[in-house]
């Protein structure tokens, strides 16, 4: 075969192959114009990863941020920004809440603590939502910004619905909506979107699993009631002025959520309990995970110096500046006794009991350490990112949950024998030592999380590619209303078929009563006849 | 740059690229050992397409078939077969049913016809399930076959759960199960698997959409009752002997369905109404669709001779041997008047009124004709395959539904303005002419189905690749129990939280009554005191 023919064959082959591939490879969306309304703080970490990918694929991004933003810089090569005035800083508000919350937790579990924590949480929610609603009013009042938003002809709004500002703005601009979501303050977004039988779907924050006994199901229903209360009397009122003033006919937040085109859910069913879902939910759990990169030389040396014992890494996330001093000291003294090396991301005062085997750092390359073969255990607070990375790299987790969904996240690992929870109120030298030794020496923890890792990686498509695909899908088709059910257009009694049941019940009752009446009539006539015969 | 360096660079580049890709590309499963228990007849057409793909990817297939099989040959390069004795032929049974059913339909819609059709359907279901249950007993009784099944160490059972034989066999052999399913005789499989609020999810066979008024919701609930009745009193009893004799502790069909690992659903949400779904449901609607191939020369000449008017193609599926004579004649005379050319797959007596523009054929390359740019309208019975191919190629459908899900399939096109239904009882020259002209000249039909085509093709992954991925996933992980909810392990009153509601209701009642009692007590005391003072 001459070179010429071979090349021709090759060209033809490649052409046929590409033609076949192209049948199901959708056209790329170059130059999509996306308006992003993120939540500040740790939620931004996730949103930014998605924005980096969208930017890399040629999309034009505009990010709305508050003037005293905590995490979101005004200038970035990724996006142009629109800055609005905000009375208070989200950072200060949340920071104060977290410290107070942690203090209460240290007092130990009791009904009183639970009640105080709940009230504290509800009042913070109210503050946060009011803050963002007021800030959004500032945007609506700024004619220059509004004109620019209208003229920019965005393809969609990408928002984190933990606060509803992005949803209201999208409604006003009549734009399709893609949500980047883990949970919303009115409960898991699923509860808004998909049937969620309370018998096997634990309410977020309840600390329950999908296997509930009777008492736990009662507890789940009570938590559900709290969440309904919170939505109706804490969250919704914050947006009342905003909705009534700027949206024709008003709006409520649940309806706005239900109108979203695509929900990018930062979860999946290796991590989460299986449950009903909807066609417009895309599970992108672990979308931020990447293979580990080599460590900096000094860190690599430290890690290798651990030899066969391996390394423990510990971090309690970006939100916590300092653990209570006594807790930090107890933990340090346990670490000091271990043959392992320890890398501990710790801010604040240096624990006095620190051992030679423990390296205190301000920051650590968490994913690269998790992916390092020397890493044995991850001591973590249970933030979604950390837990997903632990699953991806298959490292068992000793979890000390602090706030929000962290307990629920860790519970999912514990339920699968891939991690163990230590409540902040219970952390002391003894419990911490017990916990860490259990994770180090009981092989099942590693086996279980490595099975989770294999399942997580075995997906038809990488979660990040899924996320980008569906954002571009909404751009290509100007929304995805065909993936939304009719459910949300119905009044609740129709949705639950209560009107139909009432009709059928009435029909059956009438039928039964008529039958009884007829029989009575017939019996009476007979009796009368018998009597008259006897007479 | 020398050739050597360039090659090295290339090799490195390719290596890095492949390494990156491999993170989320799962290992292939060569040599999976799959036991297939298909349903005979038109369902086999779909199953075979999936088997061809699995065979091409190196899997080893064993197909169980009846000795007088209708569609499934004993010898095939795709699979080795296990043949069992069957008293009656499925073909004869179903053939007789279809002719009788069509005759009844021609009598026009009335409550009496509906009642007779339903009774006819129920009695046929009973016959079919009994036939397959008895045949399965023959398999269990054949020691040679059973030994061979046990020794073959299959990785999974792939079955069509329209009849439950495959499920029972999988339960006995303790094997993971993958279902290839469109609907099951006890209603849409979704009703077994996922929450299906009757307020917006039409029961299969009800002829309803997802937008129902009050009366339609009443109708939907009545249809649901029929289906429950059918499952409990028609389907389940057929398998009682089989379950009790061969499965330890007995079995019921719904539970066996709920234990399946993966449901490959031959549907998607471009075609079907959006609804709640489950993590272990994979929508593979249109998985059989492929780009059109060139037509045979004579057919291409005929198609081209139509010029600007284009071509109409008509087929009523493989199950119908002959349309009633008078209907065929009326249709032929309408075709004769049209400027289009017509290709009509028609068996039985040649219509006397046939025009020169109409080509009668025994068989036609349906997908290639649907994908031909000359094709204007598809006259079809509404079988799932044909409808999916019409969507894929974007050709509007004039539907004459005959049995089973055909009306429901066509209704989904009609609802989206992509097709029109003509009931068999209403087909005459006038209605057929009206219908065909509407589809030819009203542009919206073509626009709507072409929009559906664009949406259908815009998927992250081709449906066939999805199907194969999930079959191989079950092989790799020996099942997928982590995708199944806890729902099916609960008694119904716990699933619906009725026990919890009863407790809370009792608690509220007791609380109210105690309060009333306390008040009464206090009031009485006060009255007594006042009285005693007065005295």
CATH class of the largest domain in chain A: Alpha Beta
Largest sheet geometry of chain A? 7 strands, parallel
CATH superfamily of the largest domain in chain A: Glycogen Phosphorylase B
What percentage of the residues of chain A does DSSP assign to strands (E)?
Answer: 5-15%
Count the DSSP helices of chain A. 20
Shape of chain A: globular
How many domains is the backbone of chain A divided into?
Answer: 3
Structural class of chain A: alpha/beta
The whole-number mean of residue pLDDT values of chain A reads 89
And the CATH topology of the largest domain in chain A?
Rossmann fold
Q: What is the CATH architecture descriptor of the largest domain in chain A? A: 3-Layer(aba) Sandwich
Family (chains A, B): Belongs to the UDP-glycosyltransferase family.
GO molecular function (chains A, B): glucuronosyltransferase activity
InterPro entries (chains A, B): UDP-glycosyltransferase, UDP_glucos_trans, UDP_glycos_trans_CS
Subcellular location (chains A, B): Membrane
Describe this structure in words.
The structure is a homodimer of 535-residue chains. With 535 residues, the first copy, chain A, is α/β, with parallel strands linked by helices. Chain A has 3 domains: 279 residues, Glycogen Phosphorylase B (Rossmann fold, 3-Layer(aba) Sandwich), CATH 3.40.50; 161 residues, Rossmann fold (3-Layer(aba) Sandwich); 30 residues. The first copy, chain A, is built from 20 helices and 13 strands. In chain A, strands 3-2-1-4-5-6-7 form a 7-stranded parallel sheet, with helices on both faces. In chain A, helix 15 links the parallel strand 12 and strand 13. In chain A, helix 3 runs antiparallel to helix 4, helix 12 packs across helix 16 and helix 14 crosses helix 17. Chain A is globular. The N terminus of chain A is likely disordered.
